[in-house]
Design goal:
The protein is an alpha/beta fold. The protein contains twelve helices and 15 strands.
């Protein structure tokens, strides 16, 4: 039996393990010094002033929305071609997700359609950097500024990506940027997420919201300080904290981010070259303004029947692919809320053609060769 090749996988080395062990043997397992160290190093890497680490990418999205006071009666615009959390964060705040269709060539939100969906209730836009390819942030920011809307980037796929000579996460075009550290992402903390921002006001609010809405900061207290033990709950926050040993892993992983992204781009380039002559396969169209971080390597085939056939053919040969994503508004929960499948035609058609091939830094040359050969054999039958 051949070794199973997953579509995504973490890369953990001895230095990563050592960094975690050192914290496990220290005095702080949580709310300790590794939290701040990870935040500072991450902010420095992406070029933002501040970073707030939390328990997941979903938590990051939720807190980002809470920090700008998204609430009931308001609307959040995002893409349906994403994981459910990009829209669920609106529901968590009592707000309404509004979906804008994608471009069929790359899965990114179609910025030319955004203004049609803006109403007097619109508060937030969350563009999703699908698969690691940045959206047209310049145009989206123009729209957000025109209507005085808050722009939050969902960059859970895009650590290491660049747009118009800016690094995703520097918040040049947005108020906040959100990342995920799930094991299949560019770096991992097991589970975890990060919010970057250049706003001191948002940063301070995110810090408090992350830990039950409680502050011990003397300068921020509303009541008289009764002693060194004194604290106040000033907002309805959540326990979205992360541990020190997770952050130690994140710090160690972050040191390797450039090599991780470089390897992903090498794998993507080889796929591009290998499938160039297969007429039934189309690759995601790249942008001249961007550098893709390749969280995913997505190909498009003829139709959903061919996609299923290829998916099963690969799985039978121990090559595990994935599909990203079932459009959010197609899920039963959203259907019950009244969302219609036909509201975003391109998203549906895109979903029925796409398949994500294995891509991660630990993917070996012979494993990628096996994937390519298997796909070529499928189309040569």
């Amino acid at each position: 039996m051949k070794k199973i090749i997953p579509y995504g996988k973490q890369v953990i080395d001895k230095k990563d393990i050592q960094s975690v062990n050192e914290v496990l043997e220290s005095d702080f397992l949580t709310t300790g010094p590794k939290i701040k160290e990870f935040e500072e190093r991450f902010a420095e890497y992406v070029g933002a002033k501040y970073a707030v680490v939390v328990s997941s990418g979903t938590a990051a999205l939720h807190l980002a929305c809470l920090a700008v006071d998204l609430e009931s009666g308001q609307e959040l615009i995002t893409s349906p071609m994403t994981f459910a959390a990009s829209a669920n964060c609106a529901l968590y705040c009592g707000a309404k997700p509004v979906f804008v269709d994608i471009k069929d060539k790359n899965g990114l939100i179609d910025e030319t359609l955004i203004e049609r969906k803006i109403t007097k209730n619109t508060k937030v836009i969350i563009p999703v950097h699908y698969a690691g390819l940045p959206c047209n942030m310049e145009k989206i920011k123009e729209i957000a500024d025109k209507y005085n809307l808050t722009l939050i980037e969902d960059a859970c796929h895009a650590l290491g990506a660049e747009y118009k000579k800016t690094k995703i996460g520097d918040c040049f075009y947005s108020s906040m940027t959100v990342f995920s550290f799930h094991p299949v992402k560019h770096i991992t903390t097991g589970e975890g997420g990060m919010i970057t921002t250049n706003s001191e006001e948002l940063y301070k609010k995110l810090i408090v919201l992350r830990s039950h809405g409680i502050t011990k900061n003397y300068d921020d207290l509303l009541n008289k300080n009764e002693g060194a033990w004194f604290y106040e709950m000033q907002f309805l926050g959540f326990n979205y904290r992360i541990t020190d040993f997770q952050c130690a892993l994140g710090i160690s992983q972050l040191k390797k981010i450039e090599s991780f992204v470089k390897r992903r781009r090498e794998i993507a380039k080889k796929y591009d070259e290998s499938f160039a002559d297969i007429s039934e396969i189309k690759m995601i169209e790249q942008s001249k303004d961007s550098k893709n971080a390749y969280h995913l390597y997505v190909i498009m085939v003829r139709d959903k029947e061919k996609r299923l056939e290829l998916f099963n053919y690969l799985k039978e040969r121990d090559i595990f692919c994935q599909v990203h994503y079932i459009p959010v508004h197609w899920h039963p929960y959203y259907q019950k809320l009244g969302y219609k499948k036909e509201s975003c035609i391109q998203s549906g058609e895109f979903y029925e053609k796409v398949i994500s091939l294995p891509i991660y830094p630990g993917l070996k040359k012979d494993e990628q060769d096996r994937i390519i050969e298997t796909i070529k054999n499928f189309y040569e039958r």
